[in-house]
């Protein structure tokens, strides 16, 4: 009896381990597909696209510097790139990462970019601080790390519309703030005014 229980325990343990391995493989596969779709590598003369959280195109990048032949002893430390806001949102701040790869697909350089107040359709030219390319670059990609939308303040504060209804004996009567409402209660007419508390 104890031998049968021991065999069942081993089988349960093996099944549990197999399920964990399968689930982990599925999660990694899903993350790889999402990542590759959002951050596609392109040739140096092509436009790279960065997506927002909804997987919509937010930024496009075009390299101004296309001769990128670095080495471990003599890395390329400056690259010019033009970033364009392709979304329908104006941004108060944008930042991201530009990554470079050699012909084998190995990452060999990475730099950052940032800008303040970027309107819809607007472009800016920038360099990539911190960049050190240590290979002959074949492809590159653009990834947005911060896309902070610009919100225009309202001069009178936020407009809030609230619809009030008072129901008397099943009959609904709309109420507007500071507008009198006249009701007949019994044989008398009553005027009701709803105001905000001061």
Quote the distance from N terminus to C terminus. 80 Å
Unreliable stretches? 25-36
Count of DSSP-assigned helices: 1
Order of helices and strands: HEEEEEEEEEEEE
CATH architecture of the largest domain: Sandwich
Rounded to the nearest angstrom, the radius of gyration is 31 Å
For the sheet with most strands, the description reads:
4 strands, antiparallel
Counted up, domains total 2
Please give the CATH class of the largest domain: Mainly Beta
How does the helix and strand content classify structurally?
alpha+beta
Q: Mean pLDDT, as a whole number?
A: 79
CATH topology value of the largest domain: Immunoglobulin-like
Choose one word for the global shape: elongated
Largest sheet, spatial ordering of strands: 1-8-5-6
How many strands? 12
Helix content: 10-25%
| Strand coverage percent | 35-45%
Essential attributes:
4-stranded antiparallel beta sheet; 2 domains; alpha+beta; 198 residues; Immunoglobulin-like
List the helices and strands and how they pair.
Elements: H1 2-38, E1 42-43, E2 48-51, E3 57-63, E4 81-85, E5 91-101, E6 107-118, E7 123-126, E8 139-149, E9 164-168, E10 171-175, E11 181-185, E12 188-192
Antiparallel strand pairs: 1-8, 2-3, 3-4, 4-7, 5-6, 5-8, 9-10, 11-12
Description of the molecule:
By secondary structure, the protein is α+β, with helices and mostly antiparallel strands. It contains 1 helix and 12 strands; from the N terminus they run αββββββββββββ. The protein has one helix at residues 2-38; strands spanning 42-43, 48-51, 57-63, 81-85, 91-101, 107-118, 123-126, 139-149, 164-168, 171-175, 181-185, 188-192. The longest helix is centred in the first third of the chain and has 37 residues, at 2-38. The relative contact order is 0.14.
């Amino acid at each position: 009896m104890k031998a049968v229980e021991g065999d069942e325990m081993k089988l349960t343990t093996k099944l549990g381990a197999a399920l964990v391995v399968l689930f982990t493989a599925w999660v990694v596969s899903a993350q790889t597909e999402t990542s590759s779709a959002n951050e596609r590598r392109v040739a140096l003369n092509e436009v790279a696209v960065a997506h927002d959280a909804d997987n919509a195109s937010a930024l496009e990048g075009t390299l101004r510097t296309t001769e990128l032949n670095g080495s471990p002893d003599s890395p390329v430390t400056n690259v010019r790139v033009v970033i364009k806001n392709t979304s329908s949102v104006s941004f108060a701040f944008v930042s991201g990462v530009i990554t470079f790869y050699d012909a084998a697909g190995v990452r060999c350089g990475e730099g950052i970019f940032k800008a303040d107040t970027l309107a819809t359709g607007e472009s800016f030219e920038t360099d990539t601080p911190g960049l050190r390319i240590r290979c002959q670059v074949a492809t590159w990609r653009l990834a947005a790390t911060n896309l902070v939308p610009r919100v225009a303040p309202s001069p009178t504060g936020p407009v809030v519309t609230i619809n009030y209804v008072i129901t008397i004996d099943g009959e609904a009567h709309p109420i507007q703030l500071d507008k009198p409402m006249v009701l007949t209660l019994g044989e008398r007419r009553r005027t009701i005014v709803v105001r905000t508390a001061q």
